[in-house]
Amino acid sequence: MQRRIRVSTWIIDLYSVIGVIALLSVLPLFISSYYTRLVAVGILYGIAATGFNILFGYTGLLSFGHAMFWGLGGYIIAIGLIKLGLSFPLSVLLSLTILVLVALGAGYISLRHTEIYFAMLTLALSQLAYAIMLKWRSLTGGDEGLYGIPRPLGTITHYYYLILLVSLITLIVVWLVLRSPIGLAFQTIRDNPGRAETIGYNVRRLRLLSFLISGIVTGIAGIMYVPLEGAITPEALYWTFSAEIVFMALLGGTRAFLGPFIGGIVYVFIRDYAMDITEYWLFVMGVILAILVYILPDGVVGTIYARIARLQRLKR
Amino acid sequence: MSEKNNISRREFVKIVGAGIAGLVVGIGAGYVAGRGGGKTVTVTKTVSPTSGKQTGPSIPSKPLKIGYMYFMSGPFGTYGKMASAALEIARDEINSMGGVLGRKIELISKDEADRQHVIDNIVKMVKDEGAEILVGIDSSGDSLKLIKTIEQELQVPLIVTHAATPKLTECGKRKFIFRISMYEEPIDLAAAKLVAENYPNAKRIANIGPDYAYGWDSWAVFSKKLKELKPDVELLEPIYVKLGTTDYTSYIDKMISMKPDIVFSSLWGGDAATFFKQAVAKGLFKIIKAYINPMLGATDTLKAIGDSNVPSSGADIWGSGRYWFLYPPHDVYTLNKRFVEKYRAKTGEYPPYVAGTSYTALYAIKAAIEKAYAELGKWPDVDEFVKAMEGIVVAGPMGPIYVRPEDHQGMYYVYWGKLVKGGPRGFPFPILGDLAIYDAGEIFPPPLKTLVKCS
Amino acid sequence: MSIDYALVQAINTLFYASILFLIASGLSLIYGIMRILNLAHGSFYMLGAYISYTAAMLWIGPTPAGFVAGFVLSLAFLAAVGALTERILIRPLYSKPSELQLLLTFALMIALDDVVKMIWGPEYKSFTKLPWGYMSIGHYSVPIYMLVVIASSTIIGLLLWWFFAKTTIGKQMRAAAYNPEIAAALGMNTDLLFVSAFALGSALSGFAGAMASPILTAYPGMGTDAIVLSFAVIVIGGMGSILGSVVGALIAAIARTVMVIVYPLLEVALIYIVMIIVLLVKPTGLFGKEIVERR
Q1: Which residues of chain A does C231 touch, with a Cβ-Cβ cutoff of 8 Å?
Q2: Terminus-to-terminus CA distance in chain B, angstroms?
Q3: How many other CB atoms sit within 10 Å of the CB of residue B270?
Q4: What's the pLDDT at B428?
Q5: Number of Cβ atoms within 10 Å of the Cβ of A256
Q6: How many CB atoms sit inside 10 A of residue A273's CB?
Q7: Structural contact between residues B311 and B286, judged by C-beta atoms closer than 8 angstroms
Q8: What is the CATH number of the domain that holds C63?
Q9: CA distance B51 to chain C (A)
Q10: Which end of chain B has fewer CB atoms < 10 Å from its terminal CB, N or C?
């Protein structure tokens, strides 16, 4: 898997995170509450895609079932809040605990393979989770899902800042992990698993760790999303949403740390716009995705980074 | 304000009676009269065109924005197309009469098929695009999901025209949510009556329905009532299938092996048609006495079934819905005739029930605003609009609908009709023949009472 | 359970398996030869259904001739669509990372749903009549049409086996599947092989749609469920193996029917459980060979 050299440096990534979050934190002052809500959805999609990219962009494993983490995180917090009557923090804790267990189990099963079989296993596991959410009526409400989920902090704007805070912490933690020796080990495995093995890495265990972190990060986005929307249906786990997460990550660029995050936000706005202009908005999304594949295979952020890097080289 | 009258109950009954030539339809005659008391109800004659605009300092000059949401894509996408065609007809009619107190109606819409963002999209229409009143909602699940958003966050009126779960109106009074369309419980109760009266020898009752609240609740109401009316029936294990299932063959043979006398099915839309055709192919209707489907009276479903699939012998096929385009008969009720003609001119099709109910929704809004204006002399705010909606009577293609104040549920008759070939009668699809009409006053449960579990 | 009942349920199962086999064998063929997981493969199934609807219901009428015309037309049309897709859309991506191919076919998949809606509208397209009548088994009834589908699918399976085992181009395809560089070095025209494989695979899926829709109806989005079930089928049977697709389709269909009869709660889930077990026990599927990833 030889690809172009990494052009972003760690410190640029960190500054970009802080810059983007700062920008997002003043945004609600200028936009209507609908757009605040939309940006909040975009941020959470971005976090979900960032989680996916830990596994894909940094560890070299294409998961086709990340909707499972998003959906399970969402379902369990909904169950905690409205079925068990737990407080918000306790529901989050419950959701995280179950996510860890599921991620470990799913990772253990699917990491017996790599490449296409890994993708198929993650797909099968998420479809199984979808079927369970669909059929376990008493707990999940079946096809209609769960609704009337209360939002902590009342207003959209307040909750928006909670989402932003959680996202900032999540992004920084992911950033710290990825630049730590563990993160560098992930990338060694991505580039050459055989070599990683020979220089003494426990490849299987490291992949599992990456899978775990990846699943939890995507799960956190799902946890935060459900109180925002107030409802969750089994569609949140269906395989097409997994594909949408892949779409978001590639839209932003999987080779830039902030790529998937920006990709999630851009995705939400493109979709919102496409839905406004035409009932055939899926067609528009398909065309945009196709254009992206041919013209911007590095994604929006990846391409910008590459441009900057080229400018810097020219200056020297 | 020549088109508005405040009249007494007695006069109302007279008007309804005269207007529809003595037909016992729905509400009025039965239910309202039965309630007693000198209550005042308002009838708005929706047909008389007015000349010129009303003017007044309190009436906003901008258009009245009404946001609607239906399935516009996906397996149930036709429902939205049909409903929006009817809404456009109503909008054009009202606007050509000068609008609502001079304000033209402007429609905006969102696709309910975007299941993960139903709430987002409703919020967007209100907060961002300026919808003042909402109409629509196909899915029962979505309607329930929206209760909290509508009642607490948005606080704008929502007039539901399709979603049929009793929980929307009968499990606690909503402030801003109204439903003018028939809901499932009266139809299912009437179905139980129909079976008990017409099939005294039927013993074994089977069910196949969609695997979500609508399917479970329909069977619960129907089977409970039937057991009460006819204690000797044996209720077979109900079968539930995933929405959008296309291969029913194994289910049908399983059902045949259970040897039922009556099959009750709450499958709807394309699912109902696919099931029906496979049931014909698998000979289900040859071995049962009757097939009862509360959602069969939908022209789109009947079109998909086609005349060639109507069994010429064997089981009776019964269908119902929220509105049947041939009832009240066109020769005695011109409003229905005119609506059917306009809808055909616009779309080339006969109007399905969702068209009838969504068309009526705009007239209900108009009537309520005008009623409030007559009382207050100004454009009503949200609370005043809600108050005006309560107890209003509005004439739609299906006849007059009375909006019960206690639960905001629209009341009119329930119909059940037997499926016959449409070809010989001049229709390009099977139709419902002789209709059995069940009076609203007799068949509706009291307000806020339901056989369905509310939690 | 009576014999009659068992027999009709067996026919239902075989009908379902026949459709699954036709879709999955095409998907498996394309993957086996080109290592492309075509997510739009289910959409080709949908296109086949609509073409056949247009021929049988709109042009000719629901007569046996109309249905046969529908089958042939969708076979031909989807072969052309498949060839063009490979030639124009996918070929420029062979040198690119494989996730881009996957993403492109996903783009095609979501766009095709809307294309169908633009042309035919969003409503279910329903065949109001089945040709060839019915057969009685006890107090059950079976449309002859279902038996025709089962027979056609069996014949196509045999033809595919003969094609790959006996004909030169079939053998070349297998060689190219094994190693395209060597195949090219041996003077085979791999461009031509790839385009034919894609056309053949897509045509099979279109044919499946044409055969299925008279009973199952045609609607936008029907490909989304079909593709994910086909994944399960080829993973269970083994990617790239025709026999694997047969066995995978049978397992999927039997699992479904048994659950419908015995335990409907598991109807949707069981196939994925089987898929996970097979992947864990024998990742190459029951009849698959080791797949060498190409990069």
Answers
A1: 120, 123
A2: 45
A3: 24
A4: 92
A5: 28
A6: 12
A7: yes
A8: 1.10.3470
A9: 40
A10: C
pLDDT of amino acid B30:
38
Domains of chain B plus CATH, in order, are: 4-182+330-412 (3.40.50.2300), 185-320+416-443 (3.40.50.2300)
CB contact under 8 A, B287 and C129: no
pLDDT of residue B83: 94
3-state secondary structure of B392: strand
Residue C294 lies in a domain: no
**What angle separates helix B184-198 from helix B213-229, to the nearest 10 degrees?**
40
Identity of the residue numbered C267: E
C290, part of any domain: no
| pLDDT value of position A193 | 87
Task: Residue B427: name the closest of B272, B271, B306 by CA.
Answer: B306
* Strand bridging mode B409-411 / B399-404: antiparallel
3-state secondary structure at position C140: strand
Instruction: Look at chain C and report how many structural domains it folds into.
Output: 1
Q: What's the whole-number mean pLDDT along residues C75-94?
A: 94
**Inter-chain CB proximity C269 and A128 less than 8 Å:** yes
Q: Give the nearest partner residue to C268 out of A117, A121, A134, using CB atoms.
A: A134
ipTM: 0.88
**Amino acid letter, residue B166:** P
Instruction: Name the residue among C39, C89, C269 with its Cβ closest to that of A132.
Output: C269
Distance between CA atoms of B292 and B279, rounded to whole angstroms? 13
Closest-CA distance of chain C to residue A26, Å: 34
Residue B134 has φ and ψ, to the nearest 5°, of -115, 150
- How are beta strands B262-265 and B239-241 bridged, if at all? unpaired
The larger pLDDT score, comparing residue A142 to residue B252, is at: B252
Examine residue C186 and state whether it is found in any structural domain, yes or no.
Answer: yes
| Residues with pLDDT less than 50, chain B | 1-53
